[in-house]
Amino acid sequence: MTALPFIEPFPPANRDDWMKLVEKVLKGADFEKKLVGRTYDGIRVEPLYAKAEAKIPLSGRAPSAPWAIVQRVDHPDPIEANRLALTDLENGATGLTIVFRGSPQAFGFGLDDKADAIAQALEGVYLDAGVFITLEVGAKGRDAAHALVETAKRHGVEPSACNIAFGLDPVGVWMGTGFKPADGADMGRRVSESVRDLHARGFKGPFIKADGRIVHEAGGSDAQELGSALALAVFYMRALEAAGFTLEQARDGIEFRLSADSDQFLGIAKFRAIRALWASVQQACGLTPKQAFVGATTSARMMTKRDPWVNLLRETTAVFAAGIGGADAITTLPFTQALGLPDAFARRLARNTQLILLEESNLARVADPAAGAGGMEALTDALIKQAWSVFQNIEKQGGIYDAVASGSFVADIAKVRDLRAKAIASRKDAITGVSEFPNILEQPVAVLKPAAVNTQDAPLKPVRLAADFEKLRDAADHSNHAQIFLANLGPIAAFTARAMFTKNFFEAGGIKALSNDGFTKDGKTDIAALVDAFRKSGAQLACLCSSDDFYATEAAEAAHALKAAGAKAIYLAGRPGDLEASLKAAGVDEFVFMGLDVLASLKTAQARLAIRVEG
Could you tell me the CATH number of the domain that includes residue 368? Predict the structure, then answer.
């Protein structure tokens, strides 16, 4: 090892030395509460990890091989879909995902499953030129697959020359859309017949997808997503074996698809974990483990309608995590996906997000770069353990079909979804651009068609994490009274921090914060000037903002004067402490502070302003 003379004066550091420094900073505060986190699976996240010794890389993609950059073909008009797809392929995409109407990933759009529509959408796309094609099928998955087969036949393409993942998944479709043509056993028989037909025609597959995204989009945890994907894979392996396929053929016919969201470290761990989990299943079946194809789609539940430009940051993190984690193919949802059918500009940004990370950042050059990193190895190992437990619990109930049909697994997911909703409501899980740093003056962005309301009654109905806050924003958009006056007490240095907190707090609900430079005169607040500014503002609500010292001397007088001036409600930014009783007596109605249920407080504020929230 090369000598580093400049570090010689520094003694070697260890964890005990680090802990001594931490204890000084914490000043008696609880280490666990302050510095140790927990995931929604209960996995402990330490602030510091030692190097993971004797860890070898988890094999995923071939060394230095890029992942496939896959763009969605989801425009309902096949001619327009074709134009957009060709633009994608001409500008860096290496794959297309054909989205069919009614699939869990259609988001209200998608192609018809007729052969003519698919043929038109793929006109000029050379299926034997290495382009990766994958399908997002709905209730008529077999029809969609056979329509693609007919398209290949029309073009005179040899099936063995195609790189097609057919994406058959009747159980996943039922879970995500509610469409159930038959019971689990019959679903297995039907999908086996389709695989037999495609296999006999000479297609290589994979033919079936084990889709964890359904659970993710319904609000599930990372372990639940992995466990359900594993359970789906085992369900289909059993069905194929029962239909006469060898275990090797059954295994080789299955691919995995997972969601990638903005939690970078958990995302990397999740894509690493699926490799190890699948190897364990194969070993339990007496097979020599073989790598599965793992596809990633950026999370739809993390996408926001408000300030959608922030989605670009979320998606960059998601693609980074999936790529580092070893995904074989990645589909980036355009940043306007939550608003409707994306236009060519949004599609270009989705494509270029991947191109920059692949071609400029060279993320695919190193196989499993997370290997040996203490934090990443610990997260991966813990996630493998938790996901295996979820998988075993599903199997104890008779498999994925029975676990969902009984409502048991759905209830488990609902518990996680509700915990997540509480964390979002209190801004413990912040959504940038929506619950934190909202842009109250944002300008609309273009989409080709607006999104339709999802009315599907599915066992696992998809959610969007920002939806509850966005309902408040939508309601406030139609009100002339959605504003609050910031009653800043004392000098600027005294009120700036809490005024900024208050602005973020109320504007997350679409209530515009009317700020000012304060009303200090001769070292104290001119209450008369403050009240005059409040009256002229036209606001019906006011929030006192300042330091604890100024609250002790001026807040009660200011609250009394504002209430007399007609304020419907008066808020105070911060915890009141011993002043609570006197401040309430002076007219303060509510206190806003970190950890409060922000969503509930904003709903109350809107009710005070007679703003009606739909839904």
Answer: 3.20.20.240
Stretch 215-220: mean pLDDT = 98
Please give the average per-residue pLDDT across 51-63, as a whole number: 83
Tell me the residue type at 456.
Answer: Q
Return the residue matching tokens 């069919």.
100
Name the token pair of 479: 């009100």
402 and 502 housed in the same domain: no
**376 and 483 in one domain?**
no
> In this structure, is residue 51 part of a structural domain?
no
How many domains would you assign to the chain? 2
Residue-wise DSSP of 8-57? TTSPPP-HHHHHHHHHHHHTT--HHHHH-EE-TT--EE-S-----TT--P
What three-state secondary structure class fits 299? coil
Give the H or E element holding residue 351. Answer: helix 344-355
**Count H helices, E strands: the chain?**
23, 19
The CA distance from 15 to 235, in Å, is 46
402 shares its domain with 480: no
Mean pLDDT of the chain: 94
Task: Tell me which DSSP letter residue 356 carries.
Answer: I
User: Per-residue pLDDT for 210 more than 70?
Assistant: yes
Q: What is the CATH number of the domain that holds 547?
A: 3.40.50.280
Asked if 225 and 134 sit in the same domain, the reply is yes
Place of tokens 């707090």: 505
pLDDT for 612:
84
Q: From residue 213, give the alpha-carbon distance in Å to each of 136, 403, 424.
A: 12, 17, 21
Single out the residue of 390, 206, 377, 167 nearest to residue 290, CA to CA: 206
Q: Is the pTM of this model over 0.90?
A: yes
Residues 404 and 519 in one domain: no
The Cβ of residue 183 has, within 10 Å, a number of other Cβ atoms equal to 11
For residue 357, tell me if it sits in a domain: yes
**What amino acid occupies position 264?**
Q
By the 8 A CB rule, do 168 and 198 touch? Answer: no
pLDDT digits (tens, 9 = 90+) for 157-194: 999 999 999 999 999 999 999 988 778 888 999 999 99
Range of the domain at 546: 475-608
